[in-house]
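The authors assume throughout that readers already know how a fold can be written as discrete tokens. In essence, backbone conformation is discretised, so a fold becomes a row of integers matching the chain in length. A single example would do more here than another paragraph of explanation. For illustration, here is how one protein appears when written out as sequence plus structure tokens:

…
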Amino acid sequence: MNTTRMRRLFFCFALAALTLMSARSSFARQPITLNPGANPIRAVLAQQAAAAPDKWVTVYGAKLHYLEAGSGPAVILLHGLGGDSSNWASTIGPLSQKYRVIVPDQIGFGKSDKPLINYRVATYVDFLRGLMKELKVDRASLVGNSLGGWIASAFALANPQMVDRLVLVDAAGFSLPKDSDPSVLSALNPATRDHVKQLLPLVFYNTAMFASEPAVDAFFARKINAGDSYTTQRIIESIIRGEDVLDAKLGAVKNPTLIAWGREDKLTPLAMGERFKKEISGSELVVFEKCGHVPQMEKPQEFNAALMKFLGGGM
């Protein structure tokens, strides 16, 4: 398969992969500063602080782990494929100054239960509704990165009355190109160090920090110990089947929507963000320069500023 076709496949749904590498912040709980060449995982661990306590809730008989901080209007942060609640480490603190921030490990990921079911986006829509019911949240703003953005969009379509504002961060959700090779999606569930090494430069713009040899080792170790490969594979298979795609549906989204994108995202290129903007009437698009698939990590200050402005009605 040529490079162009491979990139098209990654871009359409590799989205999800992004966050599987979002293991990046998988150990973090607050913003960090790294020197070039430093091991990002060790640096995060060295500066880690428990900003939000671990909490648990039972949804449909499954035990879900989540973080919660602050008070005020509810905002729920949704990670992507292979990620967990810590992917929002740099966002929770600033956001919690004005909002009740809820950050779940979605079913099948992180510390939450991992039942052996056929996961698909509709599964996550059901569990998000169940989570909100258990936490007595009638309405919330949703912020989703990658696969989390797809879930947020699908939830808003199914439950518009439960969504205040919608923020899609380098999101996925569109159908795979007809000429795509489904086997390429296996790279989104890496089982070797080489697979991780190939993915990191697609996820991060700052390869000196996030794609160095020590970083590859750390990310691979995190993936091996995450225990989410079964979940990831089931989602990949759902993507191949074309389940729950957003094609021709986004015109029904009426919630105020912010689309946030890294200009150098090689997994879900900016063209996808522009498509979301075109299809969601009245939506706003903000682009972060020198940034890849996870602006909340690579550009935390700029991302948080844009997020707070939008949630406050400033966009």
